[in-house]
Give the backbone structure.
Amino acid sequence: MLGWRANSHGSQNQEDHGHLQQEGIELKEETPKQSIIRKLGNMRFKSAEITVISEKTSLEGKLETPGTLNLMGMFEGDLKAGTCEIFKDGKAVGSVEAENITVAGHFEGEIICHNLLAISKTAAVKGRVAYGTLTVEPGGLLEAEVFQFESADTKLLPFNSRKIHSEEK
């Protein structure tokens, strides 16, 4: 089925075709594909911003993105993102701050993860790590000075090397 499209600011209904021709507005037939493209072009999408550093890419410096960073290549410097994913062949050296961080590759430096830090079985994380929640798969390497953020729900108990926490009252 073909539709009609006005070439200026006019109505786009087929019924208005005769009226628009009388007003001197030129109409063109629109294919279904053109109609879909036009309609999609008028829509506003709420899309998550995704930044990709591909396998053969190496970047150095400072990078900030409100969305997700997928690191498959090499990054050296300061990185701040909503979510950071370091893939199996990815490598980051420097500092990373994000709400959620997943490491399957190599990281060396300082991580500040406000929510979930997930370290997969193929990952190697070295340096200093601050996290909200931490998961480490068997085989994943975490060789770091580790700190957990204190939440409103969970209070950290001070470590006492002389007593086991369950014995304290």
